[in-house]
Specification:
Helix 3 runs parallel beside helix 4, helix 4 packs parallel to helix 5 and helix 6 crosses helix 7. The longest helix has 28 residues. The N and C termini lie far apart (38 Å). The N terminus is likely disordered. By secondary structure, the chain is an alpha/beta fold. The chain has a seven-stranded parallel β-sheet with strand order 3-2-1-4-5-6-7, sandwiched between helices. The protein has a single domain, classed as Rossmann fold (3-Layer(aba) Sandwich). The chain is built from eight helices and seven strands. Helices cover 44% and strands 14% of the residues. The structure holds nicotinamide-adenine-dinucleotide (NAD). The site of nicotinamide-adenine-dinucleotide has 29 residues, from helix 1 and helix 6.
């Protein structure tokens, strides 16, 4: 018996020149690095972010380097805006092969001090956002023969961190949402995976360190606690996302991929 991976023309197969990716949170940090990497890999990339100015700047920079990139302003917590983002992508490009959900927020407060507003906002951006994006984009990804959804998780989806109740809860929920979606859409060829970085050299971690009285000490402490004794890099995260969006990952779905220098290996 011959078992053959029947690759469609989307992110599970076909030429990369025709592929279209939406990257939410693409205006900053890891999302910006992912958008840049996919664009260099010849994807057409929609940099979708609530920050219109930064999304435009990222798109301008990449376009100046000859890449096919467009900015898009979207609040991922608003279903109307998410639907409009997907509709506009379909109208201008006719297909969606990959969805990368990198938009996220965090706020530092203990459970006792975490406000109702902060809790709701963090859960809305970090969990409802990916849900709404999948809800509207997945049917189009399936229609082109399948493709990839990559959700940006965190080691804090499996570990507790004092001061981040809503963020930890949101990333734990995201992991299970990804598994659910992976099973539900496996037959459509839509692969759903989570990339789970520990602290990296950009984005939310560096913003958190910058707010501390002694940023270098925070970075040094986190670096020391890593088995590899260093932070992850945006390039390493982007490379993993690019792989998950490539035909080489055609049989990987429902996975939570640690990108943490062996930190997850410490857990039973
Ligand atoms: N930076 C790290 O070290 C690190 C570590 C682990 C996980 N992560 C995860 O990586 C992803 C990217 O985070 P980052 O560190 O690059 O952060 P970042 O703050 O640099 O980027 C997040 C982006 O999301 C956008 N955004 C926020 N709310 C939005 C909304 N409602 N709608 C649309 N866009 C919105 C912001 O404008 C920003 O551009 C997140 O999911 C984060 O949880 C980051």
């Amino acid at each position: 018996m011959t078992i053959r991976a029947d690759l469609g023309s989307g992110a599970n197969g076909g030429s990369s020149a025709s592929r279209v990716a939406i990257v939410t949170g693409g205006a900053s940090g890891l999302g910006e690095a992912i958008a840049g990497r996919l664009a260099r890999d010849q994807w057409t990339v929609l940099v979708a972010d609530i920050n219109e100015r930064l999304a435009q700047q990222v798109a301008d920079n990449l376009r100046a380097a000859g890449r096919a990139v467009e900015p898009m302003t979207v609040d991922v917590t608003d279903e109307g805006e998410v639907a409009a983002m997907v509709d506009a992508t379909m109208e201008h490009h006719g297909r969606i092969d990959a969805l990368v959900c990198s938009a996220a927020v965090e706020a530092r407060a203990s459970i006792v001090d975490c406000t109702d507003d902060d809790w709701q906002h963090i859960l809305d951006v970090n969990v409802k956002g990916p849900f709404l994006c999948m809800k509207h984009a997945v049917p189009h990804i399936a229609a082109t023969g399948g493709g990839a959804v990559v959700l940006m998780g965190s080691v804090l989806g499996a570990l507790g961190a004092p001061g981040y109740p809503a963020y930890c809860a949101s990333k734990g929920a995201l992991n299970n949402l990804a598994k659910q979606a992976a099973i539900e859409h496996a037959a459509d060829g839509v692969r759903v995976n989570v990339v789970s970085p520990s602290a990296t050299d950009t984005g939310l971690f560096m913003q958190m360190a910058a707010r501390a009285p002694e940023p270098d000490k925070v970075i040094e402490m986190v670096t020391r606690s890593s088995p590899m004794r260093r932070l992850g890099t945006a390039g390493e995260v982007a490379a993993t996302v690019a792989f998950l969006c490539s035909p080489g990952a055609a049989y990987i779905s429902g996975a939570i991929i640690p990108l943490d220098g062996a930190m997850a290996a410490r857990r039973p």
